[in-house]
Amino acid sequence: MKIGQFIHILAILLLIIGFVQPVLAAENETKDAATAFYNAGVSLLEAKEYERAIAAFDKALTSDTTMIRQSDALLYTYQNKGYALIQLNNYTGAIQTIDQGLAVYENDEKLWYNKGFALFKLGNYQDALNAYDKVLKINNQSVPALNNKGDTYFQMGRYQDAVDSYIRANEIDPGNSYTAAGLAKAQSFAATATLPVTPRPPSMIPTPLPSVTQTTPIFPTMVPTTLPTKTQSPLSLLPIVAALSTMGILSVVLMKKR
Known about the structure:
Largest sheet: none
Strand content: under 5%
CATH class of the domain at 125-218: Mainly Alpha
CATH superfamily of the domain at 125-218: Tetratricopeptide repeat domain
Oligomer: single chain
Number of strands: 0
Radius of gyration: 30 Å
Distance between the termini: 16 Å
CATH topology of the domain at 125-218: Serine Threonine Protein Phosphatase 5, Tetratricopeptide repeat
């Protein structure tokens, strides 16, 4: 067999492989279930369909989470589900979900912040303070955490502690209107307080409370709405095949001319 014929046959074989390869790759490619449920949950959360979003995140968590763990979407799943539960006023459920997330991501600022918020809503003020302290260990510039500490201290009747927390927040963000309102209210109560500052049970919460309620839970920002559903495509052999095919055809043509 002459060299031209060999190259021609080799080119044909490679051409066949080049067409078969993408087909086999497509057949072997499987869509990741956890990723699909996560993406659906994010879309529902953005549409404020919280119950349906929670159901989607639950399905993601009960699927194989290998891929979403690699892309940090597992963390976002816990953040998003906890946030959705808070929006439905299911603070106990939110804390349970957040604790599951913290078991994997123990230093996540958003999880600790929203746990503090949920604990505050349940009246567990000391636990809420502990959660906000965790936030501040991770990010000592967190104005929302400092504001919420101030709110929590105020609810406990610890007005001077509330003042101190608001002052720290004001030093970081002087133009924050929420901080200014909380600070003014706390200073007013601290100035008129005559009894020793002690934590009060929920039944003894002072009736005049700050004009604004505690700041809202953190929405998990910068969460990608979609994630890759497949790995990188294999390198195509088509350019090589085309070159060899051209060489084979030219060889045959030259042979016939001889």
